[in-house]
Amino acid sequence: MQHWDSTTFLIAAVALAAAFFIWKRWFWQGGGTPQALDARLSRLGESYQILKDVSLTTPQGIVSIDRLVVSPYGVFVISISSLKGRLTGRPGDREWWAKQGGQTVAVYNPLLENRKIVNQIAPQLGVDPLIPLVVFLNARLGSDFGVSATPLSALPQFFLRYQRETLSPEQQEEIIRQVSQNPNVF
């Protein structure tokens, strides 16, 4: 009978571990937060100036930018996505699909919104390059959404792609001045 009890215990422990793994994989999506994003951005180094929750007035109206990172390598326009589940679709599709557990729902493509923001602020800032980026805090990317989409865990690798200096210190300061003088900067 002693052998049966240890076998039963082992089976129960394996089943519990498997259930936890499945729950973590399919239902809990990593717990990414904007604060976790800020912590990762702050580790980029002193040459990256991070501006949070920026609002700029453009001819099209007020544009809200989650994060604007000014660096010698360009200006990164970051949108934060808190979508959860496994995302599928194509970069140019208007809608993507998010699968959470057993349900699949249509969601608006955040890359399109980020690109719209970049296009609206480009004439005002007069910067090249303006680099679009959507950071997915909690979603698993089930499709190749291109270089403008990255999970939070891959953020350092995204920035490593941009190592050619394109902006002088004076240009960087001018961009920060323009953004800071805007009456809608929070």
From TrEMBL:
NERD domain: which residues?
A: 29-144
Q: Where are the transmembrane segments?
A: 6-23
Q: Which UniProt keywords apply?
A: Membrane, Transmembrane, Transmembrane helix
Superkingdom classification of source? Bacteria
InterPro entries linked = NERD (IPR011528)
Q: Name one Pfam family in it.
A: NERD
Name the UniProt record assigns to this protein: NERD domain-containing protein
- Organism this protein belongs to: Candidatus Nitrohelix vancouverensis
Q: State the taxonomy lineage.
A: Bacteria, Pseudomonadati, Nitrospinota/Tectimicrobiota group, Nitrospinota, Nitrospinia
